[in-house]
Amino acid sequence: DGPMPTIVEETSPDATVKQVVKELNQQLLNQEQETD
Q1: Is 2 within 8 Å of 8 (Cβ atoms)?
Q2: Structural domains in the chain (count)
Q3: What superkingdom heads the lineage (predicted)?
Q4: CB under 8 Å to 8, separation ≥6 — which residues?
Q5: Residue 28 sits in which domain range?
Q6: Phi, psi of 2 (to 5 degrees)
Q7: Of 13, 15, 22, 29, which has the highest C-beta tally within 10 A?
Q8: Alpha helix segments (H runs only) across 1-36
């Protein structure tokens, strides 16, 4: 049992990239909400 089953299921690097992009987008949204 790996700590990240999603990456185990999708061994393609694209899955990791999507995860990173998703986190970055979430941070940007949080920053925009804070400044607003």
Answers
A1: yes
A2: 1
A3: Eukaryota
A4: 2
A5: 5-35
A6: -85, 160
A7: 15
A8: 5-9, 13-35
Residue 16: predicted pLDDT: 84
CB 13 within 8 A of CB 22: no
Is the pTM value of this prediction over 0.70?
no
DSSP state of 2: -
Pick the closest to residue 15 from 5, 7, 3, 23 (CA basis): 7
Token pair for 25: 């987008």
Q: What's the one-letter identity of residue 23?
A: E
- Residues 20 and 17: their CA atoms lie apart, in Å, by 5
Tokens of 4: 């990240």
Instruction: Give residue 6's region: left, alpha or beta (phi > 0; psi -120 to 50).
Output: alpha
